[in-house]
Amino acid sequence: MKDKSYIWISLVILVFGIWAVPKIIKKFEKADLMVVGTTPKFELVDQNNKTINNDSYKGKVYVVEFFFANCPTICPIMNANMMKLQETFYGKMDFGIASITIDPTRDTVEALKAHADGLGVKNPYWHMMTGDATYIYDLAKKFNLYTGVNPESPGGFEHSGLFALVDKEGNIRCRKDENGNPIVYYDGTSDEGVQWLKEDIKALLDE
Predict the structure, then answer these.
(1) Residue ranges of the binding site for Cu cation
(2) What interhelical angle do 75-88 and 191-205 show, nearest 10?
(3) How does strand 95-101 pair with strand 126-129?
(4) Model confidence at 5, in pLDDT bands (50, 70, 90)?
(5) Which of 67, 39, 190, 81 lies closest to 127, judged by CA?
(6) In terms of C-beta distances under 8 Å and separation of at least 24 residues, what long-range contacts does 1-8 make, across chains too?
(7) Please, where are the H alpha helices in 120-160?
(8) Domain 31-205 has CATH 2.40.50.140
(9) Distance CA 148, CA 71 (A)
């Protein structure tokens, strides 16, 4: 009887190993997302008057956008989609958002705090950041995300509605299109872009 018990225990361990090992290996595999660059160094101040830099997001997956609080066109859509990401990954302390204003004259710490509260920002790692205008525009260039001053544009500024996805090691990551080319950035104004982000954030969180 004792020998039979050992046999059954051995079989259970074997079956568990066959089932579990691939899952454990998968857990430590890199997601099938391309590395398209590293996050440029930055240091800004957020809506809580705290200095935020790359180290503030260390070990976190996060999404980067350039926006401004008084934007009357695409920013409300981008904000709403960021809120969807916050809701989807609510409670995940390894997920964050970096929202950087391109209108620092009006978007003071106090203004960004009011804007964040109005949106319902709850993620402690959703930093709405401001700083020197020249510094911010140079940072946007390093991210290769378009920003510009244009008095003729609604709100006085121009910017893309694209989001950058950053992994836990500070790499900018993205999926490939149907031809195998990197999409590089995600359309923060479309349902498809947000759905891709949700899927790819989850993949990076699982790395």
Answers:
(1) 71, 75, 159
(2) 40
(3) parallel
(4) low
(5) 67
(6) none
(7) 133-143
(8) no
(9) 13
Q: What is the DSSP letter of 42?
A: -
Domains of the chain, by residue range, sit at: 1-30, 31-205
Give the integer Cα–Cα distance in Å for 12 and 4: 12
Distances (CA, A) of 86 to 3, 22, 44, 115, 186: 55, 30, 21, 16, 16
Residue stretches of the annotated binding site: 71, 75, 159
10-38 pLDDT, tens digit each: 554 554 555 544 444 444 456 799 999 99
Distance of CA 133 to the CA centre of its chain: 23
Half-sphere exposure of 22 (CA within 13 A, CB side): 3
8 A C-beta contact, residue 139 and residue 174: no
Strands 162-166 and 34-38: unpaired
